[in-house]
Amino acid sequence: QVQLVQSGAEVKKPGASVKVSCKASGYTFTGYYMHWVRQAPGQGLEWMGRINPNSGGTNYAQKFQGRVTMTRDTSISTAYMELSRLRSDDTAVYYCARGGRGAAGSQLYYFDYWGQGTLVTVSS
Amino acid sequence: EIVLTQSPGTLSLSPGERATLSCRASQSVSSSYLAWYQQKPGQAPRLLIYGASSRATGIPDRFSGSGSGTDFTLTISRLEPEDFAVYYCQQYGSSPTFGQGTKVEIK
Hints:
heterodimer; A: mainly beta; four-stranded antiparallel β-sheet; B: mainly beta; 11 strands
């Protein structure tokens, strides 16, 4: 069965960086895009970007351009999301989520499996 | 950016009743690239519907999606106790965006 297991909660000071991991199992890691979505406390969902685990190619939401870096290690089927220059409003639960695929194998930007979430708290 | 507006904000219903949730887009969603998710407190979202009307794996048939263009609907035919949760729509025809959510609560 498909599983995405994320790293544990983090507490960071403003201006620092955080790196969250997402280990995939139960499917071919390089066959599906991996996306990152965040949710501030009591708020809705916000797409941050995605990585193609096969090529390493990325596509980031404009809001996070220059502050987010998504990488992967195919040898251990793990995706990473690093967010730099943290601010208090970056406090949120960060999710990795596998992208869907169309009938012809095209990569689609809906999310069929999700990690359990990683709480990142930014506080001085 | 396509803005999705969900209504109502909160829906108060009893088990066994029918729930109808609306999602309206600020511009047409290409290829009906519209998904619905369910989220319970402390849990990750769960995919219910993609392509506006296709149920995801393992989703009961009391959940159905419809619509095209700018107007989409999620219907839960008969609410079960486990269906009380927050529901989000999401478009993926362009850079993905989510609605603000509809909370379905027990009346």
